Amino acid sequence: MNPIIKVTDVVTRFGDNVIHDGVSLSVQKGEIYGLLGGSGSGKSTLMKEMIMLLQPASGEISVFDYDLNKISRMEAASLRRRWGVLFQQGALYSSLTVMENVAIRLKEYTKLPAELIREIVYMKINMVGLPDHAADLYPSELSGGMVKRASLARALAMDPRLLFLDEPTSGLDPVGAEEFDDLILELRDMLGLTVVMVTHDLDSIWTIVDRFAVLGDKKVIAEGTLNEVMQQPHPIIQQFFKGERGRLRSGYGK
Hints:
Elements: E1 5-14, E2 17-27, E3 32-37, H1 43-50, E4 58-63, E5 66-67, H2 73-80, E6 83-86, H3 98-109, H4 114-127, H5 144-155, E7 162-166, H6 174-191, E8 194-198, H7 202-207, E9 211-216, E10 219-224, H8 226-230, H9 235-242, H10 244-250
Parallel strand pairs: 3-8, 3-9, 6-7, 7-8
Antiparallel strand pairs: 1-2, 1-4, 4-5, 9-10
Helix pairs in contact: 3-4, 3-5, 4-5, 9-10
């Protein structure tokens, strides 16, 4: 089976600063795939390259078999309709209600009548666990967890097959983070999504991620399931998973 996303020998530079130096990985259909690494390892940068917000200096990225280096403007526009993105801080428009935020892409990319768009928006906000009345609220009136869910509803508005999440549990309390992880797992199974998740949350890695890549030393230092990655002797792997927080989460040292 061809991977949904394939990254091959990607090099990313900002001036003289090299972020990626030969990064390669693949994401298979239907899996929740994590991008893990320390601050500055280029997790979010790599995701932005996958969604065509940034372009690497060299290497190849393909999504749904489209080579992003060679894609036409029309193909790029079509491809963007096949994925949804949840950015780290939600990126909701503060001057728009939740209803208006979720409806943006439906109004931009479809010719659906206003009443049908309204029905779709209510369906999406209910799908992510928000009540109907949240549709009329502004982002400033939402809790942090509600902002995440509203942003997720917007990401799902066009029925994407691929979902990108940038630090989805960042800023949430442990209960809220666990509930959000459960929601992602439920939506993946219900909608048949493929999910790419940038995260440093070990709980997410342990509970919902199928496979993941660990970025470090400007490369992918390990890729695979949790058990496969934890067998790697690289110091960054040991620090992540066998440090104090890793031992507490996995039961080591009890």
